[in-house]
């Protein structure tokens, strides 16, 4: 963290206290002076002692103010959104802290952190890539995911990864285009499924789905791509034959259902929740990692605890992240205190 101007005042006060002074008229401070007992100590010495105590108290105040005023430079993903930026601004105002955000993306953020131009990073790494090791500390604070939406009136509650591959992959081994392939019966089984997703560049839901489900990343030509989340939700809600891929939603609109997803036909299906994302039972997740130098943890305590607070969790949810489970966040705040 950058050294603030109050440190110059601290140095000046130290020099003032340490300079040679006199404890009584005509008696140098560096000379031992024993006033005859039982006479009280000279008035000048008492004044000087009181002045020294006052200055030491001022030093403590100035030093505390200097630490509090040190700027915390935060770098990271450009997907954190304006809600998170506002939450950080509120934290800074309420705690009289200086926080500088530079959210241009994970790659430039890692470079800045390694070069010492930042204290805290919030990064999304591609599947298979690990966060930096020592001297840095890292842990997840939220997750990007993919949710599978259908109209609420549709009699379907779960789906498998293989079935999703059949609906979306151009080169699926078992292509699906009818609801009967998803377990529906009666007249519905003969109806065509209309798959849709949020367009690339509008979030990480489709790139994450491709990396996890599609063997070569190519979608069927029939997959409809929506330019905004609102258009995607309207498309799924407005037709009774649509399946949609979306990021996590802070609030589920009426008329839609989120399907539970099973890794295979033999496995249990799980809904996307903070708990299933964190323990890995829901198959689609991309962690948002908090990364910082381990040695800086004591100086960053207040801000680190904010990042796992209820306020930060709500702000991240507005940017389509699923936060950590409450108990995990509370434990993380406690664990930060033991870092050195």
Fraction of residues in helix: 25-40%
Bulk shape: elongated
In angstroms, what separates the terminal alpha carbons?
16 Å
Q: What is the average per-residue confidence, as pLDDT, rounded to a whole number?
A: 84
CATH architecture of the largest domain: 3-Layer(aba) Sandwich
Structural class: alpha/beta
How many helical elements? Answer: 11
Low-confidence stretches: 3-35, 46-68
Please summarize what this structure is.
This protein is an alpha/beta fold and 340 residues long. The chain has 3 domains: 6-27 and 40-68; 71-143 and 287-336, Periplasmic binding protein-like II (D-Maltodextrin-Binding Protein, domain 2), CATH 3.40.190.10; 147-279, Periplasmic binding protein-like II (D-Maltodextrin-Binding Protein, domain 2). It is built from 11 helices and 16 strands.
Helix and strand topology:
Blueprint: H1 6-18, E1 22-24, E2 27-28, H2 43-69, E3 71-76, H3 81-94, E4 98-102, H4 106-114, E5 120-124, E6 136-144, E7 147-151, E8 158-160, H5 161-168, E9 194-198, H6 205-213, E10 224-226, H7 229-238, E11 242-246, E12 256-258, E13 260-262, E14 269-270, H8 274-279, E15 286-293, H9 297-307, H10 310-318, E16 322-323, H11 326-336
Parallel strand pairs: 3-4, 3-5, 8-13, 9-10, 9-11
Antiparallel strand pairs: 1-2, 5-15, 6-15, 6-16, 7-11, 7-12, 13-14
Helix pairs in contact: 1-2, 3-10, 9-11
């Amino acid at each position: 963290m950058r050294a603030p101007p109050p440190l110059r005042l601290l140095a000046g006060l130290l020099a003032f206290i340490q300079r040679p002074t006199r404890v009584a008229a005509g008696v140098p401070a560096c000379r031992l002076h024993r006033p005859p007992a039982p006479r009280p100590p000279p008035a000048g010495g008492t004044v000087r002692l009181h002045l020294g105590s006052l200055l030491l108290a001022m030093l403590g105040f100035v030093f505390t103010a200097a630490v509090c005023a040190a700027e915390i430079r935060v770098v990271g993903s450009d997907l954190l959104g304006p809600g998170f930026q506002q939450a950080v601004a509120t934290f800074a105002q309420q705690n009289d802290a200086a926080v500088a955000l530079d959210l241009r993306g994970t790659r430039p953020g890692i470079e800045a952190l390694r070069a010492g131009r930042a204290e805290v990073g919030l990064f999304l790494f591609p599947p298979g890539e690990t966060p930096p090791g020592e001297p840095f500390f890292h842990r997840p604070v939220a997750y990007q995911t993919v949710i599978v939406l259908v109209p609420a009136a549709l009699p379907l509650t779960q789906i498998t990864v293989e079935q999703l591959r059949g609906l979306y992959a151009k080169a699926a081994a078992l292509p699906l285009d009818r609801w009967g392939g998803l377990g529906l019966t009666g007249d519905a089984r003969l109806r065509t499924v209309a798959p849709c997703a949020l367009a690339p560049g509008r979030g990480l839901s489709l790139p994450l789905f491709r990396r996890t489900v599609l063997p070569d990343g190519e979608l069927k030509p029939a997959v409809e791509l929506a330019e905004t989340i609102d258009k995607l939700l309207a498309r799924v809600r407005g037709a009774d034959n649509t399946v949609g891929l979306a990021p996590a939603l802070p609030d589920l609109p009426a008329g839609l259902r989120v399907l539970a997803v099973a890794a295979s036909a033999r496995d249990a299906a799980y809904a996307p929740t903070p708990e299933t994302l964190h323990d890995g039972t829901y198959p689609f997740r991309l962690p948002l990692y908090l990364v910082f130098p381990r040695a800086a943890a004591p100086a960053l305590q207040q801000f680190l605890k904010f990042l796992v607070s209820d306020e930060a969790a709500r702000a991240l949810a507005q940017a389509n992240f699923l936060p950590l489970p409450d108990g995990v966040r509370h434990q993380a705040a406690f664990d930060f205190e033991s870092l050195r």
